[in-house]
Design brief:
By secondary structure, the protein is of the alpha/beta class. The protein contains 20 helices and 20 strands.
């Protein structure tokens, strides 16, 4: 059986920008049905490689050939859309769908509209006033619904929440055409890609499999390179020894066997000692970090206030490493702003521990001195930072974050968006905070920088709160995951991101509008009127939450009394007294449970 014909071929392609060589004698091809992930450092040539594949730029030398009838779609990072158009004009143009029933009856089209939340934006919404993230989702949808032989996507997961990234992964895996995608989302690479291209030093290295296979192969390549250098030095030492002692006696050569994965990770210690870090964090932070008690918070909209949190109670302790996930608009950023004091609750309280020294990374790159050099901007905060049990100089930390020695003297105003993001993180870490609140910290960071950041956070002896759509980063950095489902509550998820997606797929709490109406999928029927009024339901929900907290406390009291009863079983008098207390607690618990059931049923309507 013959191999599948390539859709695009690059033959000995060379491309340079000024004196910097981006691609040097690169030859590769994209076959039909192949799903390729492109990785590499920011500025390493990923976007240049895509421009060669798509024909938006021409090589300085070499040849690029494409199949004559190739239907190719491209999503670049510009997010440019035609002026004066609506979502319907861009995504469902008359040239593809002459009548509404043509697309409404297509399950794949409906899946794209709901998966990218365009049903919430509205098909007749104009694209001009939309945010960058909304415009990018519209541009992505326009490519996904087209029947294409090759789909080329540059950072498609930007501005998508965890649920949106999971949907996109399933959708592109089910497509019949080829895919080339540049992304720093390592979970997406692992889930989707059958091949990984690494763009580095003018070359493109190809690896079979997704991110996990690429990481192993890359480490193995580095190990082989080190072994080769060590072997060369051993030959030199042997030659010197022979010259001194004469020919050595014959010896049998030892057998050498490589079991790649096991050899690479056999002596690797755990990423972090959670118990030691928790103890250190407790000594630095004390017992209280953040205590959120009975907080209500709403944001104004054109249709009136929309409630983000209702009777929210949450405890964050020393050494906690918590990932916060949720649907777009559920209030993840607002929650961080409540903790750092940028927002004030409508009711309830947010108690901050006396020893808390927070550092808040917002989604916006702010407070960077544009005229200072990179190293000066870092040293303005501190020259040496202590992270974990090691002291790191500003220059060394900058190098770990991708600023080579010559790049550290670049003016801040000349940095790219990704470099500014890295510098913002550097300045936060140099201030030696004991609480980190990171809002989408992975935006604009390449994989090597993400790995360096994770390595630093492994030794960070404080509390870490992360809002991120990058589930690989959340799983890697955090020990716990909580979710905002859009109904005003915060749910702890022992099963992590997988449990969140399962709950959403099973019909978890929807995001509500200002008027309290649930958003619905395209074509889904509306629900009937609630059995109880909204005010009664809110009151019942507060009662249910209060009773649930009381039940948890009674559970703890019951457990404690059981332990004390067992400890003094020999002392019959004491045991009888404790037994009476236990019965009283048990009776009260049963009564509270009955009241809670009534309140819960009323809250659910």
């Amino acid at each position: 059986m013959s191999a599948p014909l390539n859709l695009v071929n690059l033959e000995r392609v060379h491309k340079a920008h000024g004196t910097t060589v981006i691609l040097d004698d690169v030859s590769l091809g994209v076959a039909a049905g192949e799903r390729i992930g492109v990785v590499g450092r920011n500025g390493g040539g990923k976007s240049t490689l895509l421009s060669m594949l798509t024909g938006t730029d021409e090589p300085d030398s070499g040849r690029v050939t494409r199949r004559g009838d190739l239907a190719m779609g491209v999503l670049d990072q510009s997010g440019t859309l035609p002026a004066g158009t609506t979502v319907r004009d861009v995504v469902l143009p008359p040239s593809m769908f002459a009548a509404e029933h043509e697309w409404a009856g297509d399950a794949a089209v409906r899946s794209v509209l709901t998966g990218l939340e365009l049903d919430r934006l509205g098909l007749d919404a104009p694209v001009a006033p939309m945010s960058g993230g909304e415009r990018r989702r519209v541009a992505l949808a326009a490519q996904l619904i087209r029947p294409l032989d090759l789909l080329v996507l540059d950072e498609p997961t930007n501005h998508l929440d965890v649920e949106g990234v999971a949907w996109l992964a399933e959708y592109v895996k089910a497509r019949a055409g080829g895919l080339v995608v540049v992304t720093h989302d390592r979970w997406f690479l692992d889930e989707v890609c059958t091949t990984t291209w690494e763009v580095a030093d003018g070359n493109v290295h190809a690896y079979d499999g997704g991110y996990s296979a690429y990481t192993l192969a890359r480490a193995e390549r580095a190990r082989i390179s080190a072994v080769t250098e060590e072997r060369r030095m051993n030959l030199v030492r042997k030659e010197l020894a022979w010259l001194r002692r004469g020919p050595p006696a014959r010896t049998s050569k030892p057998k050498f066997r490589i079991e790649a994965a096991q050899a690479l990770i056999a002596d690797e210690p755990p990423a972090r000692d959670s118990m030691a870090l928790a103890g250190f964090a407790a000594r630095r932070l004390g017992k209280t970090v953040y205590d959120v008690e009975d907080v209500d918070y709403a944001v104004p909209t054109d249709d009136g206030p929309r409630t983000l949190f209702s009777d929210l109670t949450w405890h964050v302790g020393p050494g906690d490493r918590i990932g916060i996930v949720g649907v777009n608009g559920a209030g993840k950023t607002s929650l961080l702003k409540l903790l750092v004091g940028e927002n004030e609750p409508d009711s309830g309280s947010v108690v901050v521990g006396q020893t808390v020294a927070p550092a808040y990374l917002s989604q916006h790159v702010t407070e960077l001195p544009p005229r200072a050099r990179v190293l000066e901007a870092v040293q303005d905060v501190a020259r040496v930072a202590r992270i974990g049990n090691q002291d790191i100089s500003a220059s060394s930390l900058a190098e770990r974050f991708g600023f080579a020695a010559n790049r550290q003297w670049t003016p801040v105003g000349d940095l790219s968006g990704g470099e500014r993001r890295r510098l913002q993180l550097l300045r936060l870490l140099m201030a030696e905070p004991n609480v980190l609140l990171l809002d989408e910290p992975t935006n604009d960071l390449d994989i090597d920088t993400l790995t360096a950041l994770e390595d630093l956070l492994d030794s960070f002896p404080g509390t870490v709160l992360v809002v991120s759509h990058d589930r690989y980063f959340v799983d890697r950095v955090c020990d716990k995951v909580v979710a905002l489902l859009g109904d005003g509550t915060l749910a702890e998820l022992p099963g992590g991101v997988e449990e969140y997606l399962a709950r959403r797929a099973a019909g978890g709490a929807p995001l509500t509008t200002a008027a309290g109406a649930e958003t619905r999928a395209v074509g889904s029927p509306s629900t009937g009127a609630p059995a109880v009024s909204a005010a009664d339901a809110r009151a019942a929900k507060k009662d249910a939450a209060r009773l649930e907290r009381r039940m948890l406390k009674l559970d703890a009291d019951e457990k404690k009394l059981h332990e004390q009863l067992a400890a003094v079983a020999a002392d019959y008098a004491k045991a009888a007294e404790l037994d009476a207390q236990l019965k009283a607690v048990h009776a009260e618990k049963e009564q509270v449970e009955e009241e809670w059931l009534v309140a819960s049923e009323l809250a659910e309507g």
